[in-house]
Amino acid sequence: DCPFAARSARILPLSLDPISTDVFSLPLEEALWLPSEPGETDLGVVFTRDPKTAFPNTSWGSQQGEVKSPEGPPEPHDRKLERWSLVFSCIAMFETRNINLDPRSLERVMAISTGNSLYVAMPRISDAFDCPDPSEVKHVVGNIGRPGISLMIPSVVPMVRKVDEFRWVMINHTDFDGYLGDSFQHTSLHLSFTRYELPVLSQHGYQGAEASFIETIVSIFDRKEWVADLDVLFALSHSILERVGAHDITCTHTCRLKQPTSCLTSIDSWHEFLDPPENHCVIRSTRNWIGRLSTAALSVQQGAKTVILKDADQVCWECLLQRYQMDSPIDNLPPYLLSEPILIILASKMPVTQILLLRHGDRQPWSLNPATGEYSSREPFPTGLPADPPLAPGGVSQSEETAKHLSSYLKEHADQGRLRIYSSLFYRCLETLRPSVLALRDAVSGSSLGLDKLQVRGETGVGEWFGRAWFVQPRPGDAAQLRKFFPWVDEKYEPKLTPAGKGEKIHELHDRVAKALALVIEDVDNEFAAAGKGDQDVTLLFCSHAAAIIASGRALTGNVPADYDEIDFGCFTSGISKYVRKKVPAAGEAYFSDDWRNSEGVAGGWDCKLNSDTSHLSGGPQNGWHFQGDQAFDSYEAASKMGVTELSGSRAP
Fold first, then answer.
1. How far apart are alpha carbons 447 and 436 in whole angstroms?
2. What per-residue confidence (pLDDT) applies to 179?
3. Is the Cα dihedral 233, 239, 242, 248 positive or negative?
4. Cα torsion angle, 502, 508, 510, 513, sign
5. Which CATH number characterizes residue 441's domain?
6. What pLDDT, on the 0 to 100 scale, is given for residue 555?
7. Which of 319-323, 377-381, 609-613 holds the top average pLDDT?
8. Does the structure show a pLDDT above 80 at 250?
9. What confidence tens digit (pLDDT) does each residue in 202-248 have?
10. Of residues 469 and 101, which shows the higher confidence score?
11. 637: Cβ–Cβ under 8 A, 6 or more apart, which residues?
12. Per-residue pLDDT tens for 424-456?
């Protein structure tokens, strides 16, 4: 035992292969990974290695001329000795006593395969922004199909695809507009092997070869097209790679100055990466650690100054440009300040990345007497509340077809606790959600994390729109009352907003919905960030009504027509709209402001990817609706004693 081995054992999981008992026949002081100077373990036991027992360095590095080290033992103060080399030497010895490797010969080893275990240096399978413990190794069940211990090493000179001048490709090199997306979502990393293999000679005269160096290629692929080979450990430890977070740059600039300027160029494909412009560049790879790892490692291998910008949505771009002298063109900079363009790779914590808006299914009708303010229906409603009907038979069928689609689409998010469901508290919305919620809860029944989060939060801020009236407009039941119909309604949740009691004008509805959405999104962002899960993709599902869904589309995208009656965002019964987030608000920027109509949308802005899609419904689009001026009933108060005028509660166009 020793402090290093003890720490390594704590880093590795408990599911290791059984340790060979042969290792106890080798005195621990002969282990080459043990420091030659005395060291004390956590138990207070002092260990040191006898230098006389050191084996000559006869392994891959020395034979190839790559590692030129004396035959004496490595000293603890040798800063060039990678800690992963010590870990790999320790692991190899505990796998079999015949392998006692000099760590200095393992400096280029990135992983070990032995038995049914793979031991991989953490930078090889981590986000490029992260800085794993210098001795952290990940244990993975599996092997590469070779006997004994395979010491996996990268190629000496990784290859990179050359630009084909005879092949026509689109290279834009557009100015960076501040959009924090992911342009490298089709990037993948692949492992392969060359025919190069070198046995490890643990000591002179030993005939067996229980370990071998295996040349291993880590390749970047863009879909099915090879891009380059990587030496990840070398690249991520190089001095030209810098990691910068929002906490590293503090300032008091206004939100306008925090936004990026046009002096940066976007790189949005591997073709643009391999044929870069001659100025500072930005790679959009948010929420994609494989994309960041690939672009960062290859950028360093090509000798480019590389900055991985974490929390790109929070950083002040004005200060960042000044920090790296990027606020001036490269041609105008003194040579001693900057000789090469800087490549910035974006990383951002943006938990809520997708919003789904679902309109309720076809419902039963009601009627209104505006002179008395009384709502009525032919048949009683389950809740006994006015304007709170259940679904019509066709709406029930729509909800069941919707459940088949949503339960499949959202299963992974639900299972991992990355789904939050919100709904108007009117009965028809909760009834529409019922088959979907039950299907999702059944699918994740084995996951306590997913099941715990699969409750529906009643949010009246995205509830039904009733026009301005002289009487009090209907309100839904509260969560506690509705749980007898829908036991998965979250009775602890407090709605962010409540509509005005006597109804709203159209512009007031838009303000209410925009603010409610912003508050909900901010709440979930903060929930995941506080739990240390800010890098997870989170989906919000809202079930609401026609008017609120149209207003939601306008609030999320910032596209508000001058005429509210304009037909833009659809709202067919059981239609699904999908919105994908552009970015989170910059540091100091609010999720919602009273001037939201002149922004790119609340909470950073969103792109509409599906507009009331009904492809999952056998009946196709039905019962569409759009605004037709304000619904106002104020004038009916004077006529309350002059007879009855009935208005239908239908949502027909």
1. 17
2. 74
3. positive
4. negative
5. 3.40.50.1240
6. 97
7. 609-613
8. no
9. 555 555 567 889 999 999 999 999 999 999 888 888 888 888 876 67
10. 469
11. 470, 471
12. 999 999 999 999 999 999 988 765 555 667 899
Of 426, 437, 431, 361, which Cα lies nearest the Cα of 403?
437
Q: What is the pLDDT of residues 139-185, one digit of tens each?
A: 888 889 888 889 999 988 899 999 887 788 888 888 887 777 788 98
For residue 616, pLDDT beyond 60: yes
E strands in 321-472: 342-346, 352-359, 367-369, 374-376, 419-423, 456-458, 468-469
Per-position b or e across 27-62, b if 16+ CB within 10 A of its CB: eeeebbbbbbeebeeeeeeebebeeeebbebbbbbb
One domain for residues 539 and 592: yes
Transcribe 102-139 into DSSP letters.
-GGGGTT--EEEETTEEEEEGGGGS-TT----TT-EEE
Spell out the alpha helix ranges (H) of 226-275: 232-236, 255-258, 270-274
Same domain, 296 and 422: no
Instruction: Indicate if 469 and 599 belong to the same structural domain.
Output: yes
Phi-psi group of 604: left, alpha or beta (phi > 0 → left; psi -120 to 50 → alpha; rest → beta): left
| Total count of residues recorded for the chain | 653
User: What is the pLDDT averaged over residues 130-134?
Assistant: 73
The mean pLDDT of the chain is 80
- Please say which residue of 104, 120, 153 terminates a domain: 153
Domain-located, residue 183: no
Same domain, 358 and 281: no
Of 126, 153, 180, which one is at a domain's C-terminal end?
Answer: 153
In this structure, the answer to whether residues 332 and 370 fall within a common structural domain is no
Q: Is residue 648 part of a domain?
A: no
Is residue 203 a part of any domain in this protein?
Answer: no
* Cα atoms in the 13 Å half-sphere on the side-chain side of 69: 25
**Cβ within 8 Å of residue 38, ≥6 positions away:** 46, 47, 48
Instruction: Write out the two tokens for 407.
Output: 């339960």
The answer to which of 94-98, 219-223, 471-475 has the lowest mean pLDDT is 94-98
* Cα separation, 639 vs 645, whole angstroms: 9
Q: Are residues 588 and 464 in the same domain?
A: yes
Written as six digits, the tokens of 622 are 């039905």
Per-residue pLDDT, averaged over 125-145, amounts to 81
Residue 411 and residue 310 in one domain: no
Q: Name the helix (H) or strand (E) containing 198.
A: strand 187-199
Output the six-digit token pair for 306: 């590389």
How crowded is residue 580: how many other Cβ atoms within 10 Å of its Cβ? Answer: 14
- Three-point CA angle 13, 19, 20, nearest 5°: 165
Same domain, 83 and 114: yes
List the domain range (segments joined by +) for residue 324.
Answer: 223-346
Q: Which helix (H) or strand (E) holds 648?
A: strand 647-648
Q: Is residue 563 part of a domain?
A: yes
Pairing of strands 39-40, 46-47: antiparallel
Number of independent structural domains in the chain: 3
Tokens of 39: 């060291």
pLDDT at 327 (0 to 100): 52
Q: What's the rounded Cα separation, in Å, for the pair 130 and 141?
A: 23
Residues 6 or more apart from 111 whose CB is under 8 A from it? 118, 119, 120, 121, 124, 152, 216
Q: Yes or no: say if 333 and 345 are a contact pair by the CB < 8 Å rule.
A: no
